[in-house]
Amino acid sequence: MDENNLIKMELTVNGEAVSMIVKGGRRLLDFLRDDLHLTGTKEGCGEGECGSCTVHLDGQSVLACLTPMERAIGCSVLTIEGVGSPTNLHPVQAALLDEGGVQCGMCTPGMVMSALDLLERNPDPTIEEIIEGISGNLCRCTGYKKIIYGIQQAAQELQAASPAGTVKESVE
Amino acid sequence: MSTIGKSVARVDALGKVTGESRYSGDFDLPNQAYMKILFANRPHAIIKRIFTEQAEALPGVLAVFTAKDVPQNEYGLSMPDQPVLCGLGSAKPFADRVRWIGDQIALVVAETEEIAAKARDLIRVDYEDLPVLTDPLEARDNHEVLLHPDRGSNIFCHYRIRKGDVESAFAEADVIIEGEYRTPVQEHAYLQPEAGLGYIDEAGRVTVNVAGQWTHKDQEQIAHALGLPLDQVRVIYPAIGGAFGGREDMSIQIVLALAVWRLSQRGINRPVKIIWSREESILGHHKRHPYWILTRWGAKKDGKLVAAEVELVADSGGYAYTSTKVLGNATLMCTGPYDIPNVKVDAYAVYTNNMVTGAFRGFGGPQGAFAAETQMNRLAEALQMDPVEIRLKNVLREGDLLSVGTPLPKGVSMPEVIEQCAVKAGWEVLSNDRSQARAIKRSRKDAPENDRGSNLKCGMGFAAAFKNVGFSFGAPEQCWATAEIRGGAEIEEVVISHAAAEVGQGVHTVIGQAAAEAAGVTLSRVRLVTSDTTVTGDSGSVSASRMTFMAGNAVKGAVEAALGKWYAEERPAIAYYQYRAPRTTPLDPQTGKSEPNFAYGYVAEAVRVEVDTETGHIRLVDVITADDVGKAINPQQVIGQIQGAVVQAMGYTLMENFIQQDGFLQTGRFSTYLIPTVLDVPGQIDPYVLEYPDPVGPWGARGMGEMPFLPFAPAVVAAVHDATGIWFNEFPLTPERVLRGLGKLS
Amino acid sequence: MTIWKNYFLAETVQEALELLAQSEGDACPIAGGTDLLLDLQQGRHPPLDTLVDLSQIPEMRQLEIRGGKLFIGAALPLNRLVESPLAQQHAPTLMDAARLIGGPQVRNTATLGGNVCHALPAADGTIALLSLNATALVARLEQRCEIPLGELFRGPGKSALDPRREILVGFNLPLREAGQASAFRRVMRPQGVAIAILNLAVWLQRAATRIADIRIAIGPAGPTPLRAVQTEAALRSQPYQPTLPPQALEALLSESRFRTSPHRATEAYRRAMAGVLLQETLEVAWQRTLDVENQDD
Q: Is B488 within the bounds of a domain?
């Protein structure tokens, strides 16, 4: 650590090794958006209420606005940019798109990340469990109904495709 | 092959689900600088002096701008009563006052956001505090403390309706219901806080990449403040994270352009980025007007309305914003969609030092509807009439006159919408007589007796509303579209250039569908160029539920004109088309007589609630909403808008408790201002999309983004009354307010 | 914006204590960080020189029976707590509370240790732990000690622990015995990090139809989390009644000091809700003593 508070960020992001010297003492959200230019993770409130900054840290959904960036050193981070691709969407992405679960889109990356976390732990959730699974994500546009339905559709599709399989297989 | 009426996937959804879509805070340019704003944080004061030396001296600071740096230090959508920056040294009279905590004092531009924030905190302002006015009724009559001393009064707008003779009519009435209502402030809480990137573009234009609702109005306001010709200013909108009216007014657009432009004048040609925190967003942009409404309605025994008298006072905060237009709407809608022969309305917009107020989904409609629908429900109770039956007895039908003395435009479906909603909610039509007044009653089996022992009480409430499509009352209304048809023998591509802001409501998809339909091609052959003042014509704002209507007609016209050229062998075939909506007229200053709108949407809602009389908690069991959208161009999007509006209205009615004290904000974060989470959503939302075509709308479409919001609060209040016997005249109905109303709190 | 200068991920409690002691400027331990980071960013905590991250220290993430007690590590994420059969068996009140904290993302990170050290009078985990008679295992460089939980609070947001010198390693809870059960309820459903209006935890020991022993914790009912001892006395040894006995309600309202918060709730509302909440929580706990009887232990 020196005067400029430079640190070495060595971690895996979306499956790729990252090694950078950057200023420390900031949130994981700032590292992702400002240093890695991964702007898919959003800042909606900066205080852990809206969930639009949800990413996966070592396989668990966390709020990047409340995570020290240094905690991610040596870990694996998954952001929305690492989920599916435009030509090969993850079923959760495809379902939100197909079912009208996207309006302004600001909550969408966070919703996808929370849905992935939910389906990983619970591949066959009830509606109540889906609701609980996204209870940490605010949406101001859709009224949530189509998001719930989309996640339900995605779960069914994933179950049908590989009943014993895990979500990770579809994630790039 | 028709695309109209198909639930095609949104044209912008792919980018949004992959995280590739970029919002105005997601852009970076090389060598960019960062800007922070010093807010007044003081509700009413005169600025005596601003000390910026320490801030300017901080290493890494590029510039500090204050009022003296603004060539024309004023802006405002209805009147230019607001300084861009409050302070000394500009020619704008009384610009040295702050009238609201969110007034902007200084801009700091620095190498990093952190340095800009540090420098901002080093700026010292000497204020002379002035008396703070927080009660609009008091401010209305206060002639000593004038928020705008160049005006003689804190009232800056007064609308009147005088139709018939209310006093005589009241004398003949069998029952008179008086009500005093207060509607609350509401925060838009769109998920994307304000953000922008400003720069000088390759053609030397002062350019801002921001979120907004009307590119050309932003451009006009920027150009005016900077004293630049319009074509020297450029406004671009990328993806926008929600608006609901909250981006209609200025927040960062002008100051961002100012900073970029002033820096370039000093030889510093660098982009400038600004992102507001959630706290800055809640502080810095306008809110929904709280309204005080005093009203008296009279009716005959048989339920026929004879008179309505209404006094409305809108708390407009420190500046006008669009208060005059909101007031116009409220003036029209405060007597509901009913045929009332005698009407007297006095509506006032008043300056106070509270949070500034302006456009928010519904735009005066929710406030007016709350009063009107609650009055109707209370009249029904007093007359022991069914609330749907009394409405059908009085509802405006084709040819009937509004309170402003003119008929609704053709295509009035209010009676049908009311009836269909009621039937879906369990009402039975008792007679097949197709004459005017239908006998209709809520089915006995659907109204279970509340178990006396249980603290859970159920109830059902009903309300209806009509919502204008378009700017209203003579405001200029137009929308430009450009269509370019390309190909050889066959049409290969249709390129539509359109300025309409896609704020999440789905208008870009609607534009695509309209183009595909008009050109007779599939949606995949349509490409959009959007929201850039250099290449898209003025579309008007995305507000007033107008854009599907206006853009749909504009695109239709442009494509049809381009097709004409196409068949005349022009390659490519390009047409510029301006759609102008039918004329509307302003309120007569004495009588209010006017042709206020060219189109309306009609909506009715029935809400079932369960009230826990021990905790005051209200559970929304079921929401039935019938919406006449004219034509659902994209049914899936229409339903998404209905669901979104209902949940936002639910927040307004039950839980969004905006608190300000002496002009200071108490609920400035998402942890203190609670908006609905997925856990709060009503068990059932049943949207019934009705399609009674509008004669002028594109393929019969009306506009519908706001209307499901309007009847919700009065329907819930009626349901709570049905459950508990208590009429609430104020909301949000937080558990505490409910318990207080039930008499359970000391 | 930088919020701290130096960050260390500690591997052991000893290492963490040394780092805290050696730091030149202000230093603080962080577990999940959902409270601390907010306090730092929103100006409720002075800026920090050093952050010592305890979240990966193995001994602080244990959950096991040890020496006849249930040990819960202070840095165990709440989601692990919620999934734990041991916690379900011995401390259902803690499970009730943990499930209500934030959303899934917050529960993946937030910890009981952070909850307790934040020292808010209505912190959900704290209220639950207090009713369970939990003790806190506190480590200093030279020694470790065990302190009754109630002694950790000085005032709203003021922990008795010195962040430069002391680390809360974990909690010891008595194991549940036959006839015992606990429950937690609150007024306000979960929303992110927003705090509750009122929360309440009940632990009780049933003997036939009587409440043989009872502990009640409630907040916010004063500057620190409150053990409602007078209310306990009014209920102890009495037959259980589904409707709260008037003397118990009177005791609760007398020993609780409810306040009006600027945008949360008024004192009057809290007073009105306290009895309702106690009655409900008591009922759930009582029912659990009956259910447990029918289960295999």
A: yes
Which of A30, A41, A102, A118 would best serve as a mutation to test chain B binding (most B beta carbons within 10 A)? A102
**Separation CA A54–CA A48 (nearest Å):** 9
Q: Verify that B595 and B729 share a domain, yes or no.
A: yes
Q: Are residues B544 and B609 in the same domain?
A: no
Q: Supply angle C-alpha B34, B35, B38, rounded to 5.
A: 155
- Percent of chain C surpassing pLDDT 90: 80
Nearest CA in chain A to C4: A25
β-bridge pairing B291-299 and B305-315: antiparallel
**Residues carrying CATH 3.10.20.30, chain A:** 6-82
Q: Which CATH class is domain C6-53?
A: alpha beta
Assess contact for B675 and A51: CB atoms under 8 A.
no
- By C-alpha distance, the chain A residue nearest C192 is A49
Q: Superfamily for C194-292?
A: CO dehydrogenase flavoprotein, C-terminal domain (3.30.390.50)
Residue where one domain finishes, among candidates B103, B130, B157: B130
Nearest by CB: B685 against A99, A108, A143: A143
- Give the domain extent around B46: 31-130
On whether both B457 and B547 belong to a single domain, the answer is no
Whole-number percent of chain B with pLDDT over 70: 98
What separation, in Å, do the N-terminal and C-terminal C-alpha atoms of chain A show? 34
Q: How confident is the model at residue B450 (pLDDT cuts 50, 70, 90)?
A: confident
- Within this chain, domains C6-53 and C58-174 share the same CATH topology: no
> B592: phi > 0 → left, psi -120 to 50 → alpha, else beta; which?
left
Backbone angles phi, psi at C280, to 5 degrees: -65, -45
The reply to whether B336 falls in a domain is: yes
| Same domain, yes or no: B503 and B534 | yes
**Where among B563, B580, B597 does a domain terminate?**
B580
Residue to test with chain C: of A135, A138, A139, A144, most C Cβ within 10 A: A135
In the sheet where C135-139 sits, what is the strand order? C63-66, C69-73, C167-174, C135-139, C144-148
**Per-residue buried b or exposed e for A85-121, using 16+ beta carbons within 10 Å of the residue's own CB:** eeeebbbbbbbbbbbbbbbbbbbbbbbbbbbbbbbbb
Residue with tokens 């001994």: C59
Min distance A114 CA to chain B CA atoms (Å): 13
Report pLDDT digits (tens) over A95-121. Answer: 999 999 999 999 999 999 999 999 999
- Whether pLDDT at C191 is above 70: no
C→A interface, C-beta within 8 Å: 1-7, 9, 30, 33-34, 37-38, 41-42, 51, 53, 55, 79, 102-106, 108-109, 190-194
Indicate whether this complex's ipTM tops 0.95.
Answer: yes
Asked if C271 has any chain B CB less than 8 Å from its own CB, the reply is: yes
**Is the domain A6-82 a CATH 3.10.20.30 member?**
yes
Classified by CATH at the fold level, domain C58-174 comes out as 3.30.465
pLDDT at C47 (0 to 100): 83
Q: Which residues of C touch B739 (CB under 8 A)?
A: 269, 272
